[in-house]
Write a structure and sequence with these properties.
- With 156 residues, this protein is mainly α.
- The chain is built from seven helices and no strands.
- 48% of the residues lie in helices and 0% in strands.
- Helix 3 (64-70) packs across helix 5 (102-115).
Length: 156
């Protein structure tokens, strides 16, 4: 087969045509034949956890302080701008996914505001604002863990 007959050469080449599976993987991973060994395009070994999830994927935990901090603007106003509203919504989804209620959210907000040396009156106002945004959509009672539920059903 000459160079002109090679499907990978010339203008008629379509992605995936004439390539082996490992070559396609390598192309997606951003390097030659390193798809399985290296993380996509970063040149570092893969770590445990879901790919593309950063530190959260490796440890299975998202740092709540970072999520709460993203919900506040420079003036420590909860959901003060578009980006902060998006962050508050992402944090709400995370709280709901983990079946956490308003108590947990309130505690995390208070901890963040205390770390930022926020005046008590401003902290109260922001807590009221956050409550308006979050509490109606958070569970009132956290779900029981499976072990607790099974232990309650076991006969004595």
């Amino acid at each position: 087969m000459s160079e002109m007959d090679d499907p990978r050469e010339g203008s008629e080449f379509e992605p995936g045509q004439g390539m082996r599976r490992d070559e396609r993987r390598a192309r997606r991973a951003g390097g030659p034949r390193q798809a399985g060994r290296l993380a996509a395009g970063r040149g570092e070994p893969r770590r445990a956890g879901r790919p593309g999830r950063g530190a959260a994927g490796r440890s299975g935990r998202i740092d709540p302080t970072e999520m709460v901090a993203a919900c506040f603007d420079r003036d420590l106003t909860f959901a003060g701008g578009e980006e902060q509203i998006d962050s508050a919504f992402a944090w709400l989804r995370e709280l709901r996914r983990r079946s956490r209620g308003w108590k947990t959210a309130r505690r995390q907000i208070q901890l963040f505001l205390d770390q930022q040396n926020c005046p008590p009156e401003h902290a109260r106002q922001e807590m009221i604002r956050a409550r308006k945004y979050l509490k109606p959509w958070l569970p009132t009672q956290p779900r029981r863990r499976r072990r607790e539920a099974v232990a309650d059903r076991a006969p004595d």
